[in-house]
Structure formats: structure tokens, C-alpha cells
Amino acid sequence: MMNFVLAMLKYPDVQRRAQDEIDNVIGKDRLPSFEDKEQLPYVNALCVELLRWQVINPLGVTHVAAEDDVYCGFRIPAGTMIMPNTWAMARDDDLYPDPLNFKPERWLPGGSSFNSLRPEEYVFGYGRRLCPGQVWAEHMIFIAAVSLLAVFNIEKALDLKGNPIPLNEDHKPAIVRLLGPSKCAITPRSEKAASLVRDIAP
Ligand code: HEM
What we know:
The protein is of the alpha+beta class. Helices cover 35% and strands 12% of the residues. It has a single domain, classed as CATH 1.10.630.10. The chain has helices at 2-10, 12-26, 41-53, 86-90, 134-151, 191-200; strands at residues 63-64, 69-71, 74-76, 81-82, 152-156, 171-172, 178-179, 184-188. It starts with a helix and ends with a helix. It binds protoporphyrin IX containing FE. Its cofactor is heme. Pathway: Secondary metabolite biosynthesis. Heme binds at residue 131.
């Protein structure tokens, strides 16, 4: 979710566009549900772009070649450690023009990456050790993103003088990419939004 919050802080126009779509499709009287997914193309595109923009395990998971192999003219002896450079794949500007920027619209029909390799096809790994949590993760990203956007504004926190506090975009070098922390202000979009949250609070 750090990736989601960072994207919303850095790209307020994306946040507004997603909220407009949610307001138009769902209205403001209820929380979103999985049944709304098909009617929210921009929110879905935002979730795909989240997987691409800040790959959470940039070098995938290391495997070892079980037997001698040749790939694209390179000899790979048995026992070689193999790390997929998922980070580079997700930043390939042939597939994703302007790759460093968070642009959900690239995944919409007619968008610059609409026909490109989708991040779901490689950020979860490959073959028989493919991530078993993929479907669950994609559903959780959708429902968390759409629910938060429906009821909250995510903005930069202000310091005591009222100036926005700069984001901390550092990450810790680790197998799993950990961002931040950054201060932010997450506030209900309206009194009605606040009451929807209170209604489901335990
Ligand atoms: C955005 C979220 C996630 C990403 C990007 C991700 C990515 C990956 C990747 C790249 C692998 C290595 C696949 C390979 O060896 O080729 C993997 C393995 C695995 N993932 Fe995930 N994962 C995510 C979420 C989850 C979740 C939510 C769960 C559990 C509910 C999960 C459980 C596992 C397990 C158990 C493995 C090891 C599978 C094996 O070695 O047989 N992952 N994941």
C-alpha cells in the first residue's frame, strides 16, 4: 500500500480522476465492492500501473538452473543462480513510454501500453513456481485502492508553517522494496464518507 499512497501523493490528478470515476459509477452513498470492478476501467488501470511503477521485488525470487542450458546464445551451466531483472522489464520504454511516470491511462484502450506486455505477466514470477498469491493480491490491491479513494483524500502533510512536507522516496535495499516512510494527510472526503467508514468500524 506504500506504493499506492506514494502514487496518490505524487500524482493528485490521477487521484482526482479515479475519484471522479468512482463517484460517477458508484455514487457517494455506499462503499465500493468487488461487483463494481468491471465498471471502473480507470481504477483497474491504476492498479495495473501500481504493479509496474514500483515493482515490489525488483529482482524477483532467485532460482538455480537444474541442468546446463543455453539462452539467447548464453551458456548457463547447471547450478547457476538466476535472478530475473523485473525492475528493468517494468522500465522498458519500448513497452512503456515515459516509464518513470505513473500513468494509469497507458493501460486504457488506445493508451500507449494497451497492447504491451502487462506487468501481471512477470511481476509475480514465472512457470511452476509462479506466485500462488497473485489472484488474491490483485483483488486486495483493487479493493483497498478503490475503497480508500472512495472515502479519503490522500495529500501531502503540512508543516507548522503550512508548507507541504516533501516526500521521502528512499527505499531500503532488500529483496522486497520498502519505500518511505513519508508523512501524509489522509482525510475523509466528506461527512458522508466519514460516516460510511464509521459504519463498518468494529
Ligand atoms: C503484489 C503482490 C505480490 C507480488 C508482486 C508477488 C511476487 C512473487 C514472486 C515474483 C514470486 C517468485 C515466483 C518465482 O519463483 O518465479 C512469488 C512467490 C510466492 N508468493 Fe508472491 N507476490 C505477491 C503477493 C503474494 C501474496 C499476497 C501471497 C500469499 C497470500 C504470496 C505468496 C507467495 C508464495 C508462497 C510464493 C512462493 C511460491 C513457490 O516458490 O512455489 N505472494 N511472489
